[in-house]
Every structure is written in C-alpha cells, then in structure tokens.
C-alpha cells in the first residue's frame, strides 16, 4: 500500500513537471519574436508603431508605402525579431496613427519625414538601418541625408531616388496634377483610391494571385474610405512632386557616405518599374542587388526570400561596421 502511494506521488510530481515544462515552452517565443503594438505622442499626434526584438540588438526601421501602413510588415517583423530590434511606424493619415484633416495637418513629404524623425527620437533610436518602400523612400531618404551618422544601412524595395522609371503611363495624371493643382485634375486621381485600384497594387505583376491574401486590400481600403482621407491622399499625390527635385541631394548622400545597401525589388511593378533600380549602381559601391519576379508589394509573395536576404545582408554589414567602431582591446 505504501509502495502504491509512493508511486502515485511520483506520477503526480512527474506530471506536474511535464505540464510546467510544456507551459514554459509554449510561452518562450514571446521573449524574442513577440510583436508589440504601441502608440507614442509626436507633436500632439498619436503615432502607432509595431515593435519586436531585443532593444540592444541592431535596429531596423521599416517605412511603409501607399496606401498601406505598418501592416505591410506584419510577417517580416517576427521573421527578423530574433536577431534585430524591428520598428515600423504608421505615418499620420495612415494605419492606426492620427489622421487629422488637411486643414489641421500639412500633408507633405517634408512633414511626414519630420514626424518620423521626431518619432525615432521620442522612442530613443539613435542608430538604425532603414527599409524604404514606395512612400517610405522619400521619407527615409530625407531622414538619411539629414542624419547620415544615424544610418547603418539601407534596404530599398520599389522606391525611387532617380528619375528613371517615373516616365510611364501611371505617372502622367499625377505629373499633370503637380503642374496644375485644380479640382478637375484632383478628381481624376480619385480612381487611384478605389478598392479596384488598391487590389490592383497588390495583385499586378505577381506570379500567383492565389498567394496574395485579400486581407491586404481589405485592410487598407476602409482606412482610405474614412471621411476626409481622400483629401489627405490627394495632398500627398501633389506633394510627391517635391521629391524628384531632391534626387540630386540624395544621390550626393549615396556617393559621399556610401551606406551599405540592399535592393530587393519587385521587377514587375508598374508604379516603380525595374528601370528605377539600375541607377543606384552608379552611386553606391557597397550594393547588393536583387530583382524579384513579383509586383509592387514584393513582401506579399517573396517575404521569406526578402527576410533571408535581409538577415544575411545586415548580419554582414552591420556587424562588421560595429566591430570597426569598437575601441582597441575589445
């Protein structure tokens, strides 16, 4: 009887240890790849951001495109967070950040860059690599050219810093709006803000449309459809005309500071076609170059490939750069 009792106690304790161990294992990934959804005040605005990874690891700042938000990085963030501190904000007027009216906020790329700059300072980012895509390129390149000492590396995905690639049919009505900001010209651009146009951005040029989740355009479109948001987007369509005159300044930054750069570009993109990639080779010496057989939102179809390329690239470039900065004897 005593032996049976001892066996019962032993079994109970063994089961308890097994359950405890299983519970610990189930919660363990949260210490490295858990994505947190946060909001910080910047100049009176709520700026929403996604954050993951150890804060003492190299930081990667992810800057989204139109018409989406940090949501475009929802899969990339946990894929990198075991090794990097990953931060992805939403600009004002996008995603979960404040969306004041055009009367209450100046929707220009200069101002978006100012908000992102203040955001990085508010959350204590002093050194980072930048992933730029679409609208993220003029925002990120403004930030990099102003603070080259803060930038470890660049990752460029379908975002221009050269005139090549901006002369196709897609850009003609937008360029007309730059020249004549009339109501009639603006109304012609409202077709870019419809569900069909948003879906087209995600599906055009992809290898397999069934690989693209409809959650993408169904996430973005209700935000575009918020009252007053079309006026926000028209203001930014107009402000995009301020970017090409800055291309020479950004190119000078590339030549002078030579940031290590990874290009991962969807070559079938009709908005930022592959013609826009090759000029980077003129100015950047430390350049890794990849054209991917997909469309505008390359992460949707080739996210795993891009994550691997980023891990390998930053592992070489950022780690090497930080070793160079260590004092003698370390």
Quick rundown:
By secondary structure, the protein is an alpha/beta fold.
Question: Topology as H/E string?
Answer: HEEEHEHEHEHHHHHHEHEH
> Cα distance, first to last residue?
65 Å
Structural class: alpha/beta
- Largest sheet features: 8 strands, mixed
Our estimate of the beta-strand percent is 15-25%
Number of domains: 1
CATH architecture: 3-Layer(aba) Sandwich
Widest sheet, order of strands: 1-2-4-3-5-6-7-8
Shape annotation:
globular
Count of individual beta strands: 8
Radius of gyration of CA atoms, rounded to a whole number? 23 Å
CATH class: Alpha Beta
What would the CATH topology be? Rossmann fold
Continuous helix count = 12
What fraction, in percent, of the residue positions are helical?
A: 40-55%
CATH superfamily: Alpha/Beta hydrolase fold, catalytic domain
Q: Whole-number average pLDDT?
A: 90
Pfam families: Abhydrolase_1
GO molecular function: epoxide hydrolase activity; haloalkane dehalogenase activity
Organism: Fuerstiella marisgermanici
Domain AB hydrolase-1: 58-302
Task: Describe this protein's structure.
- By secondary structure, the protein is α/β, with parallel strands linked by helices.
- It has a single domain, classed as Rossmann fold, CATH 3.40.50.
- The protein contains twelve helices and eight strands.
- It has an eight-stranded mixed beta sheet with strand order 1-2-4-3-5-6-7-8, sandwiched between helices.
- The longest helix has 28 residues.
- The chain starts with a helix and ends in a 5-residue tail after the last helix.
- The N terminus is likely disordered.
């Amino acid at each position: 009887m005593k032996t049976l009792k001892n066996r019962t106690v032993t079994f109970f304790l063994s089961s308890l240890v097994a359950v405890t161990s299983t519970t610990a294992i189930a919660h363990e990934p949260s210490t490295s790849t858990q994505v947190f959804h946060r909001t910080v005040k910047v100049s009176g605005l709520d700026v929403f951001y996604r954050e993951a990874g150890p804060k003492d690891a190299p930081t990667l700042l992810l800057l989204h495109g139109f018409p989406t938000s940090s949501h475009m990085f929802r899969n990339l963030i946990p894929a990198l967070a075991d090794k990097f501190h990953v931060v992805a904000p939403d600009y004002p007027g996008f995603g979960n950040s404040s969306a004041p009216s055009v009367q209450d906020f100046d929707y220009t790329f200069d101002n978006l860059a100012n908000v992102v700059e203040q955001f990085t300072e508010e959350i204590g980012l002093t050194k980072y690599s930048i992933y730029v895509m679409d609208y993220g390129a003029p925002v990120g390149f403004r930030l990099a050219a102003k603070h080259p000492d803060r930038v470890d590396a660049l990752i460029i995905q379908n975002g221009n810093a050269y005139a090549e690639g901006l002369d196709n049919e897609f850009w003609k009505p937008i360029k007309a709006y730059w020249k004549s900001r009339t109501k009639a010209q603006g109304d012609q651009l409202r077709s870019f803000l419809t569900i069909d146009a948003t879906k087209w951005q995600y599906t055009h040029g992809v290898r397999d449309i069934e690989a693209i989740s409809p959650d993408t355009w169904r996430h973005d479109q209700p935000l575009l459809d918020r009252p007053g948001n079309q006026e926000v987007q028209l203001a930014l369509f107009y402000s995009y005309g301020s970017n090409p005159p800055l291309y020479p300044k950004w190119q000078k930054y590339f030549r002078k500071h030579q940031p290590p750069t990874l290009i991962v570009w969807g070559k079938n993109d009709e908005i930022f076609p592959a013609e826009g990639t090759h000029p980077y080779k003129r100015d950047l010496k430390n350049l890794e170059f990849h054209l991917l057989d997909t469309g505008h939102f390359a992460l949707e179809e080739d996210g795993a490939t891009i994550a691997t390329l980023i891990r390998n690239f930053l592992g070489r470039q950022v780690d090497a750069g930080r070793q160079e900065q260590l004092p003698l004897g370390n």
